[in-house]
Specification:
With about 375 residues, the chain is an alpha/beta fold. The chain has 2 domains: about 130 residues, D-serine dehydratase-like domain (Lyase, Ornithine Decarboxylase, Chain A, domain 1), CATH 2.40.37.20; about 190 residues, Alanine racemase (TIM Barrel). The protein contains 11 helices and 16 strands.
Length: about 375
């Protein structure tokens, strides 16, 4: 099977680029002596997980219990569910743990901490710490940190944080600075808890930019990162990888031609409408247009508008797109996590147009 045989729109995953991205992250963290607990919220695929876990302890991070159940079914049992747990989900976690999993949950809420400890079979838990993103978590010096720990009691095993504000950085210097803020916050929280008599064994941090560009991770026991595996236009802008580090693209077909533009069958569902590069130095619209081989072939041609099933590509006047209806293009995504979410499989290539494998993924919650 070759790319020309595939239905469109669909995801194309270049295994060679994926492997290179995985090696780069593993090498960066190995130099600092910190293991990786890869975040599978982007890939949601056992085949990708197996690649990402080579040389790592074996634990992963997920963002849904559907992912947790899927990976447990494929033999991965050490799982951090890195979204605040709710009372209604504790029974599901308990069922998975009773079947052999070891799912760790997180919270920053006092009532939820009490609910975890009161459950018939409490899971291990981490306190979420805010290191500057101001999305979730308690600050390292907050009285709430010790209150949460007291409520969790023996089920508290550590702390976790996420430097999502690293996405506002625009240089490796910015990323290193934010990585140090992240490290300082999470280790400060761990120190306070240990001084209060709590046994803290997990000090978990990480985003792809900070994991890659951190200069010091002393006191951190694991780093979580996920989007680095696939990459995207935004990650390329903030120097997580080079432009040739985008492993996933959307294969699409021309469905109409207009002066200066073409219509394709990849719209908002196939590409997502995430405009993450809008505030970056270069705005890529809804995606950068590549040729059918996945290489830059059309200059600055961008997907300028995205309807549900239609994409409107405006081409670079210096490099017009001369394709018939049915001609193929590939789109590099703005935010790969959002782009892949509406698809159920990856058509895997290895630098050429031959499809060497089809890897399924799990969706839903």
């Amino acid at each position: 099977m070759r790319l020309a045989d595939l239905p469109t729109p669909c995801l194309v995953l270049d295994r060679g680029v994926l492997a290179r991205n995985i090696r780069a992250m593993a090498g960066s963290l190995a130099r600092l002596g910190v293991p990786l607990r890869p975040h599978m919220k982007t890939a949601k695929s056992i085949d990708v997980a197996r690649m990402a876990l080579v040389g790592q302890p074996g634990g992963i991070t997920v963002s849904t219990l559907a992912e947790a159940e899927y990976f447990v079914g494929h033999g991965i049992t050490d799982i951090l569910y890195a979204v605040g747990i709710t009372p209604q989900k504790l029974d599901h976690v308990a069922q998975l743990n009773a079947a052999g999993a070891d799912i760790i949950v997180i919270t920053d809420d006092p009532d939820m901490a009490s609910a975890i400890a009161a459950h018939a079979t409490p899971p291990r838990a981490l306190i979420e710490v805010d290191c500057g993103e101001e999305r979730g978590g308690v600050t390292p010096d907050s009285p709430a940190l010790l209150d949460l720990a007291a409520r969790l009691g023996p089920y508290l095993v550590g702390v976790m944080t996420h430097a999502g504000h690293s996405y506002a950085g625009r240089s490796t210097i910015d990323m290193a600075r934010i990585a140090e803020q992240e490290r300082a916050a999470i280790t400060r929280a761990a120190t306070r808890l240990r001084e209060a008599g709590h046994a803290i064994t997990i000090v978990s941090a990480g985003s792809s930019p900070t994991a890659l560009h951190a200069e010091n991770l002393a006191g951190v026991t694991e780093m979580r990162a996920g989007v680095y595996m696939f990459g995207d236009l935004f990650q390329a802008e903030i120097e997580t990888h080079a432009m040739d580090g985008i492993a996933v693209t959307v294969l699409t077909s021309v469905i109409g031609r207009r002066p200066g533009k073409v219509l394709v069958d990849a719209g908002g569902l196939a590409l997502s409408k995430d405009r993450s590069t809008e505030a970056a130095p270069r705005d890529y619209g809804f995606g950068l247009v590549l040729d059918a081989s996945g290489r830059p072939g059309y200059g600055d041609a961008l997907v300028k508008r995205a309807y549900q099933e239609h994409g409107v590509i405006e081409f670079d006047p210096a490099r017009p797109i001369d394709l018939p209806v049915g001609g193929r293009l590939r789109i590099a995504p703005n935010h790969t996590c959002m782009t892949v979410a509406a698809h159920d499989r990856y058509f895997v290539v290895d630098g050429e147009d031959e499809v060497v494998a089809i890897w399924t993924r799990v969706n839903g919650w």
